[in-house]
Amino acid sequence: MQITDTKIYGIREGFSLIEILISLLVLSGALATMFSGFESSSMLDMQAGFESEAAFMAERELELVKSDLLAGRLKPVAAGRRGRFKMKPGWKIATTIADRDDDGATRIQVSASRSGRNFMLESFVYVPKDSTAMEAKQ
Predict the structure, then answer these.
(1) pTM, to two decimals
(2) Which of 16, 72, 96, 100 is most exposed, with the fewest beta carbons within 10 Å of its own?
(3) Which residue intervals of the chain are DSSP H helices?
(4) How far apart, in whole angstroms, are the C-alpha atoms of residue 82 and residue 77?
(5) Does residue 54 lie within any of the structural domains?
(6) Which of 64-68, 89-93, 126-130 has the lowest mean pLDDT?
(7) Residue 78 lies in domain
(8) How many domains does the chain have?
(9) Predicted confidence (pLDDT) per residue in 50-89, tens digit
(10) Contact 92, 112 (CB under 8 A)
């Protein structure tokens, strides 16, 4: 009678301990990568929300300053000023206006900040030198 390996060791069914440990290691690596992606996604979402809100408020303030400059209600000289709109809690808006250059362009910077984060928006507006003289005549 001939003895075969199946009679000595029996029929092998299922997974060995090493195979199970390796599959758990691979699975835990995949889960760790997935959860770190969720955290990164959450941080990027918060940053995008901040920038969106800050850009909206800064653009609103910038357009108000531009219209005041063009209408002559505000002089195109170097100055800093606070925002004119009511802000949400924790937000601060500051506007900086530079002196008019030789070409009549005035640089306006609006910064929006909240919780240590800053967002700055900059624009230029052409304010003719004659616009203040014309309004003085009227």
Answers:
(1) 0.66
(2) 16
(3) 5-9, 17-71, 130-137
(4) 16
(5) yes
(6) 126-130
(7) 14-137
(8) 1
(9) 999 999 999 999 999 999 888 888 887 788 887 778 888 9
(10) yes
Task: Find the helix or strand (DSSP H, E) in which 121 lies.
Answer: strand 117-126
User: With contact defined as beta carbons under 8 Å apart, do 124 and 105 qualify?
Assistant: yes
State the CATH number of the domain containing residue 105. Answer: 3.30.1300
Tokens for 99? Answer: 């002196």
Q: Is residue 9 part of a domain?
A: no
Q: Tell me the C-alpha distance between 83 and 113, whole Å.
A: 12
How crowded is residue 15: how many other Cβ atoms within 10 Å of its Cβ?
10
Is residue 102 one of the residues assigned to a domain?
Answer: yes
Please state, as a whole number, how many other Cβ atoms lie within 10 Å of the Cβ of residue 63: 13
DSSP 8-class letter at 78: S
Residue 23 lies in a domain: yes
